[in-house]
Amino acid sequence: MNKDWLEKDFYALLGVSKDATPAEMKKTYRKLARDLHPDKNPGNKVAEDKFKAVSEAYDVLSDDKKRKEYDEGRALFASGGYGRRPGSGGGNYNVNYEDLFAGDQGGFGDFLGGIFNRGGGAGGRSKQPRRGQDIETSLTLSFADTLDGVTVPLNLQSDGACSMCHGTGAKAGSTPQVCPTCNGNGQISRNAGGFAFSEPCPTCQGRGLFVDDPCNRCHGTGRGKNSRSVQARIPAGVKDGTKIRLKGKGGPGERGGPGGDLFVKVSVKPHPLFERKGDNLSVDVPVTFAEAALGADIAIPVPRGGTVNMRIPAGTTTGRTFRIKGKGVRGKDGLNHDVLAVIDIAVPQNLNEEAKSALKDFADATTDQEPRKEIYALGEKL
Question: Domains of the chain by range and CATH?
């Protein structure tokens, strides 16, 4: 056993208890490895050291034999009875990253592949295809645009090849040379106690190329901010606040890699008449007292223009809802949803003397129609 192990509390490094299950340790290590990874913390020596420390801890504790030896050795070490066991392993990190991150949709296995040097050479990660960055943007649509969907142009800005040097990093008239430090690999290998750690070449910053006369715009990086326009199809029925993912419409990939995704957050301008109710549209329809009491044929406005005639029966009350089929927002199946017409009995605000007299006669003729009789009865029971 490596005596250096015994001076370290691997459980504390991982932040797990001594009786933690393999699944618990694996879950904890995944999170730590993501947070501390050198690519996520460029130039952060503290994060790099912590990353190596938790990797060593997980290597030992994830192996049943090593973990047993470690636990027994720590117990002896604490009591002053430490002794080296012949034939014990230790020192070389042997984490199976393919198994650890199997099924990880974020591609973290590939992410780590260029950092851990298992084959002895400086990893060729810099030469592998690289997926483009994801981009987020916002879009405001009119209510009419959401009815049947719309295709809109979006002006985007993303990382890409420098427009002046076209990605070479070199000033016009000069060409980049193969980096003499990493021989074009883009990475160098550093050995830390049996742990082969690959990191970006400090001379070429991971590009594998060295520029004597750098481009004035990108200063030799070969990268820049590029503006471009894409046509984005916004599906019918999109609601305010929806975030739409357009696969491959984000930043362009590098070295033949796929493009990133474009996430579009949609805001929908409110309509003065129609309102979303789930998949349907709702519209308030004012009617007169006479129309509600006697029944009437009324015209209901619908989206896309025009009206639909609808019969409301005698005795219709405020809040009663009628369904007009197939006149609403288009659904994913290509068929239109419905419009819900909600009745609102309009109370006249200004009556002439003739109308007032007619209403008094009506009130006298309907004294047996006491609308509050039921609530009075219920109130007496309390």
Answer: 3-113 (1.10.287.110), 135-268 (2.10.230.10), 274-352 (2.60.260.20)
